[in-house]
Amino acid sequence: MAKKIRLGILGGGGDSLIGILHRVASQINDNYEIVGAVFNPNYEESIAFAKEIDIPTNRIYKDFDTLVEEELKLPKEERIQVCSILTPNFLHFPMAKKLLDNGFHVICEKPMTTTYEEAKILQAAQEKTNTIFAITHTYTGYPMVRQMREMIKAGAIGKVHKVDVRYYQGWINSIIHDKEKRSTVWRLDPKKAGISSCMADIGVHAFNMVEFTTGLRIKSILADFNYLYDDNQMDVDGTVLIRMDSHVKGVVRASQVATGEENGLAIAIYGDKGGLRWEQENPNYLQVQSDTEPLQIFKPGHAYNSELSLDGTKLPPGHPEGIFDAMANIYKGVARAIRGQEYNDGEFPTMLDAVRGMDFIESTVESNKKGNVWVELD
Ligand SMILES: NC(=O)c1ccc[n+]([C@@H]2O[C@H](COP(=O)([O-])OP(=O)(O)OC[C@H]3O[C@@H](n4cnc5c(N)ncnc54)[C@H](O)[C@@H]3O)[C@@H](O)[C@H]2O)c1
């Protein structure tokens, strides 16, 4: 029986949105044990939270630097092997850099950094230390998204020519119109979120979904943002035209002010032989459409699905699995990589995805700033 992987957590305290998703996901396939953490910048709060969720407090550290320092003093077989970074965006880079430099593996929330420059520094750091790095584009862990990728790879829809991905949320609508409320949200503060709100928070997921499912690289983009108010520095809505090739084009639409929308991520990929459509709020249905055959719906867990898709389900068909399971699939892939086992490259998004995501975010900001011009991605 393989030993559990020793996991450290940075951020993701009881007051956070995403902490519980990572903690539960890390436990779902019995691969990890949480052994150390800095859940909050306030030490007392971190300790109190560790007690609340019944994690030993001897390796709850007062801050990130202390965590690295103290863990390095431990014998290798006791030391944290991988750290999940779940803090606001501006802390991802300094944390990931120090972890990678010191040989820890990293699971990092998106966006990886606040600049493309920082992303390339992390890429070099990872190459140097030969560590495992995953960026949690959670939706790639859904069985039917994996199925899309494998079907497109196998030629099921022929040559891809049109892509349409939309990620619409509405939660900032209740905040953005009030100047005071606006200043309380870190996602609208460039010092904490970086150069973008909407594109960096959710547009980047949409971007990654296009590249993950089609296997194609987006080569150039043209963006049009809405900031809603002249004194608001952060985009809250944007439409991005994308070109993968001269005859392969599409659109990424993202919004945090699509009033009443919850987590409306939806992707459609069209090829010359067929089309595929999937929606995050209804994740166990993959629509397969063609000009000549009746509409088909693929569902998880059936033998007709690909190996990669089937690896992402745990129960027989008809037992709905959701976002916790999708994240758990990413953790499962990372566990295989850490243990040196074989894994499919669709099991978790990597450093390359993270770097491309930062290139996308910066390019959209540049395009919008220059008056909605085409910008080439590297
Ligand atoms: N993959 C996804 O779908 C997804 C969804 C939501 C959020 N996220 C990402 O997760 C990250 C966190 O987002 P959130 O919504 O959970 O934020 P949040 O503000 O709800 O929580 C942030 C947590 O980090 C802690 N923290 C802040 N500074 C810290 C420090 N110096 N040391 C240790 N802990 C510290 C806070 O106390 C809090 O517990 C962001 O980068 C965000 O983009 C990803």
Helix content: 25-40%
Bound molecules: nicotinamide-adenine-dinucleotide
Strand portion, in percent? 15-25%
Q: Count the domains.
A: 2
Per DSSP E runs of 2 or more residues, the count of β-strands stands at 14
Shape: globular
The structural class is: alpha/beta
Name the CATH architecture of the largest domain: 2-Layer Sandwich
Query: Which CATH C-level class of the largest domain is it?
Result: Alpha Beta
Which regions have little confidence, pLDDT < 50, spanning 5+ residues? Answer: none
Oligomer classification: single chain
Lateral strand order in the biggest sheet: 13-12-11-10-6-9-8-7-14
* Mean pLDDT over all positions: 97
In DSSP terms, counting alpha (H) and pi (I) runs of 4 or more, how many helices? 13
InterPro entries: Gfo/Idh/MocA-like_OxRdtase_N (IPR000683), Gfo/Idh/MocA_oxidoreduct (IPR051317), GFO_IDH_MocA-like_dom (IPR055170), NAD(P)-bd_dom_sf (IPR036291)
Pfam family, one: GFO_IDH_MocA
GO molecular function, one term: nucleotide binding
Domain GFO/IDH/MocA-like oxidoreductase: 145-277
Descriptive overview:
Helices cover 35% and strands 21% of the residues. It is of the alpha/beta class. It has 2 domains: 5-138, Rossmann fold; 142-313 and 351-369, 2-Layer Sandwich (Dihydrodipicolinate Reductase, domain 2). A 9-stranded mixed beta sheet has the order 13-12-11-10-6-9-8-7-14. A 5-stranded parallel beta sheet has the order 2-1-3-4-5, with helices on both faces. A hairpin with a 3-residue loop joins strand 10 and strand 11 (275-279). The longest helix is centred in the last third of the chain and has 19 residues, at 351-369. The site of nicotinamide-adenine-dinucleotide has 23 residues, from strand 1. Nicotinamide-adenine-dinucleotide binds next to strand 1. Residues 145-277 form the GFO/IDH/MocA-like oxidoreductase domain. InterPro entries: Gfo/Idh/MocA-like_OxRdtase_N (IPR000683), Gfo/Idh/MocA_oxidoreduct (IPR051317), GFO_IDH_MocA-like_dom (IPR055170), NAD(P)-bd_dom_sf (IPR036291). It comes from Arenibacter certesii. One of its GO terms (molecular function) is nucleotide binding.
